[in-house]
Amino acid sequence: MTNILSVNTVRFVVLLLLQVLIFSNINFLGYINPHVYILFILLFPVKNNRMTIIFLSFLIGLSIDMFLDTGGINAGASVLIAYIRPAALKFSFGALYDHQSINFNTTELGQNITYISILTVIHHFTYFTLETFNFSKILLILQNTLYSSIFTILLCVLITIIFSRKKKK
Description:
By secondary structure, this protein is mostly helical. The chain has helices at 2-21, 38-43, 50-68, 73-93, 95-98, 109-132, 138-162. The protein is 70% helix and 0% strand.
């Protein structure tokens, strides 16, 4: 139990620092802004209490908002994806989620990509909608969502592949 707690604590701090110090400074072509910190929410253990992940999502989003002075939009988008995470898990993993036996290191890559993609697109659409807060600029919101989501999904999948601990048979 303490191992899971320490891994998640380190993941929280490292992703927070990476987001604030590196990924928030990437603004490629004005549209690509990766939000890799959502990996904390995506990879949080499934068996834990739902209120715990919602609170921790709010905490990581609020921490990033305080560092970047973004007025709570990261916290709002993070809480939303933490809230709808069970539906995305059920859609992506099916029976594995029903039995609470999901291990992200051993599931198929396609299932992981589907799961990461669903929550990333929802996060980014919410983030850019709250940032713009003007539906007359829906094309700009969709463009930012598309480009940033693609880049974030690629980074998240690469990070999970690099740091996965698959057991060799």
